[in-house]
Design a protein that fits this description.
Layout lengths: L4 E6 L2 E5 L9 H20 L6 E6 L6 H14 L7 E6 L11
Parallel strand pairs: 3-4
Antiparallel strand pairs: 1-2
Length: 102
């Protein structure tokens, strides 16, 4: 995805889908995507409409340094005000029912 798109609009708000971070097309592409993500979030925040930042992360990447790097970059852009709005959602995870399975 190269652009920001509004996925859903209703009376309660909008869901915005942005280009990915740590894209398989390399670091340069990730930095380009970060600029797009930042500009969109900044526009929404300035309009007083930013209520949540949801990062969707493949579970296999959960301990990857790139996730920490992204959170650090978002913090640099928005400061501590972003933390109450930040949610990290892991996809492709498996339910582990015992400590041995973890």
């Amino acid at each position: 995805m190269d652009e920001v798109k509004i996925v859903e609009t209703n009376c309660n708000g909008e869901i915005i889908d942005t280009p990915g971070w740590n894209d398989s097309n390399g670091k340069v592409r990730s930095l380009e995507n970060l600029r797009v993500i930042y500009n969109q979030l900044k526009t929404i925040a300035e309009a007083g409409r930013l209520n949540a930042i949801v990062l969707t992360v493949n579970e296999k990447d959960k301990c990857d340094d790139s996730i920490l790097e992204l959170v650090q970059k978002l913090f640099k852009c928005f400061g501590a005000l972003m933390f109450p709005m930040l949610c990290i959602f892991f996809t492709k995870s498996e339910l582990k029912t015992t400590p041995e399975e973890a």
